[in-house]
Amino acid sequence: MIHLGKTNTLEIIREAVQGLYIADEEGNEVLLPNRYVPENFKIWEKIDVFVYLDNEERPVATTDKPYIQLDDFAVLRCNQVTDYGAFLDWGLVKELFCPFKEQAFKMKPGGWYLVYCYIDEKTNRLVASSKTNRFLDNRELTVKEFDKVELIVSHPSDIGMNVIVNKIHSGLIYKDAIFQDLSIGDKLEGIVKKIRPGNKLDISLGQIGYRNIEPNADRIMKELQDHEGFLNLTDKSSPEDIKEQLQMSKKNFKKAVGSLYKQKHIDIKSDGIYLAE
Questions:
Q1: Which residues contact 209 (CB under 8 A, 6 or more apart)?
Q2: Average pLDDT value for the chain
Q3: CATH code of 101's domain
């Protein structure tokens, strides 16, 4: 079966004036236009292509790699807005359409937007939606507390930053747990810190509890090595100073320093932390 909106591995079956015809194992064919035909090819060899609909709504293949595929999220640039909706640059000749009804906020040319790519059931076309929350579902969770998860930064709120978890669920990173600059569309790893009533997911960008001592300790050791064995930080330092230098909370800083001191890796003095001799 040839999958619309996905990368397919298909077999070259014949050459034509307009390009190559390639097919799946069931014999379903699609055209690879001349502009994408590789210089050297052999009949019956396989090729990776992305399949979508051309301007006449016919399936067509391309060797170009789009910035987004079916059932995925990405930040795309709006190229133009017409009476029908917005058209987004997704790395292909034909732009990706986002109807007005699928725009969380009215799109403007030159703007960048986090969108989800899906197939419109009425037209069978690939379209985009910036109303990403409607494609997330927390009714049946596929994660549990302390699981490592893949995150996409979605949008800010008054209490933190909303994130997409494993491309399935919605989650939240509270403000006091953010120690780095985050931008919409950023992809990073996190931990499920807590599952609250209603299957609401609290997410941490670091490890949790005793799990965060080792990576935070490693970070402090690296900073010490990069700064000639000294950091002008103590347990009396402000949370802001600690966050600026180490991108961690004061609580985690004190835990990590305590761990390093017990292991005799550091010396603690009134003016800061020193690498142990």
A1: none
A2: 92
A3: 2.40.50.140
d(CA 204, CA 211): 12
Q: How far is CA 208 from CA 146, 180, 213, in A?
A: 7, 17, 9
CA 145 to chain centre: 21
Domain span at residue 18?
7-62
Interatomic CA distance for residues 44 and 132, integer angstroms: 40
pTM reported for the whole predicted model: 0.76
Kindly tell me the burial class for residue 180, based on how many C-beta atoms sit within 10 Å of its own C-beta (0-12, 13-18, 19 or more): exposed
Contact 52, 46 (CB under 8 A): no
Q: Write the CB contacts of 26 (distance below 8 Å, at least 6 apart in sequence).
A: 1
Helix (H, G, I), strand (E, B) or coil at 262: helix
pLDDT at 92 over 90: yes
3-state secondary structure of 269: strand
- Give the model's pLDDT for residue 208: 57
Please check whether residues 221 and 173 belong to one and the same domain.
Answer: no
* Strand pairing class (29-33; 46-53): unpaired
CATH number, residue 257: 1.10.10.10
Look at residue 263 in the predicted model and tell me its pLDDT: 83
Give the pLDDT score at 212: 55
176 and 209 Cβ atoms separated by less than 8 Å: no
**Bridge partners of residue 21, in order along the sequence:** 14, 31
The distance from CA 135 to its chain's CA centroid, rounded to whole angstroms, is 15
Q: What is the rounded CA–CA span in Å between residue 78 and residue 69?
A: 17
